[in-house]
TrEMBL record, chain B:
Pfam families named in the record: Sigma70_r2, Sigma70_r4_2
Domain RNA polymerase sigma factor 70 region 4 type: 129-178
UniProt name for this protein: Sigma-70 family RNA polymerase sigma factor
Assigned protein family: Belongs to the sigma-70 factor family. ECF subfamily.
Source species of the chain: Chryseolinea lacunae
Gene3D superfamilies: 1.10.1740.10, Winged helix-like DNA-binding domain superfamily/Winged helix DNA-binding domain
InterPro entries: RNA_pol_sigma-70-like, RNA_pol_sigma-70_dom, RNA_pol_sigma70_r2, RNA_pol_sigma70_r4_t2, RNA_pol_sigma_r2, RNA_pol_sigma_r3/r4-like, WH-like_DNA-bd_sf
Domain called RNA polymerase sigma-70 region: residue spans: 27-90
Length: 88, 196
């Protein structure tokens, strides 16, 4: 999280619904260049709830990726599949 | 069965083996994780993944070489899960028609903009908290998080894998993440974090 001074930021978001939708698009890499530019460079600088949400969502996404995948399929499963297909 | 409506292909036995080994098998670990997160059972997920790969081989001529094998395989696995496992467990789908509505409800939006969870609390979740929270979600919500956040599928790919419109993908994902945050904030409270 950046150490930007938060005292000047708005405590309430003026455009909640749109911002929530925008945040999701950005998080998932589905936003356009203009949307990213507006939200990440302008809106996050001035809106505290959106700033906090953005960093929260990023952290959750990162945790999901590191904690919930990366495991290996059991080797006997891999062998079984290969055997069945090889014999097909 | 096919993800894109590709015309039926014709492959030699050797080509089939090549596609299977070089395009399908590299996804085995992601497929197993998907199967495991859907069934929450090691034996069931093995069966599910094996069935999926055998089906994929049987219908290999519906797959166009060099296209999105991962999405194609995920779609077969998800369909097998719905047909073979969900029926067995008789678990009705709890995702209802309110999902789009809830997304746009203004009280809900007010609540979502200030979630009951802080990023600091997440830093202490170094064990199984996230994984348990994910597994505790209803399977339809779990699925969109797996596809998007774990596997990195794009919305249009998810729409094809799940046979739902992109708008539904987005609203379901949005709701799934809110439910996940609720679970995580329960853990945060148990860990002694004060919520805002
Ligand atoms: Zn805002
Ligand atoms: Zn904005």
């Amino acid at each position: 999280m950046s150490n930007s001074d938060q005292s000047h930021m708005k405590q309430d978001c003026s455009n909640k619904r749109d911002c929530l939708e925008m945040l999701q698009l950005i998080l998932d890499g589905e936003a356009t260049h203009e949307q990213k530019e507006h939200f990440l460079k302008h809106h996050l600088d001035e809106c505290l709830p959106c700033y906090k949400n953005y960093h929260l969502e990023l952290k959750i996404k990162e945790l999901l990726k590191t904690k919930c995948c990366g495991g290996q399929a059991p080797s006997d499963l891999v062998e079984q599949i290969k055997n069945k297909i090889g014999a097909a | 069965m096919e993800l894109e409506e590709a015309p039926k292909q014709h492959y030699s036995e050797e080509e089939k083996q090549n596609i299977f080994n070089n395009e399908f098998m590299p996804h085995i670990h992601s497929m197993y994780n998907f199967g495991y997160r859907l069934t929450l059972d090691a034996d069931d997920s093995k069966d599910l993944v094996q069935d999926t790969y055998l089906k994929a081989y049987r219908f290999i001529e519906s797959f166009q070489k060099g296209t999105n094998a991962k999405a194609w395989l995920f779609r077969i696995l998800k369909n097998s899960f719905i047909n073979d496992y969900r029926k067995k467990s008789k678990e009705p789908s709890k995702v209802d028609y309110q999902e789009v509505e809830t997304y746009y409800n203004s009280e809900e939006v007010d609540r979502q903009i200030t979630p009951d969870l802080r990023v600091e609390a997440l830093k202490d979740m170094i064990g199984d908290e996230i994984s348990n929270a994910l597994n505790a979600l209803d399977v339809d919500f779990r699925t969109v998080i797996i596809l998007c956040d774990l596997e990195g599928f794009k919305y249009d790919e998810m729409a094809k894998i799940l046979d739902i419109p992109i708008g539904t993908v987005r609203s379901r994902l949005h709701r799934a993440r809110n439910l996940l945050k609720e679970k995580l904030s329960e853990y945060a409270k148990q860990m002694g974090y004060k919520t805002t």
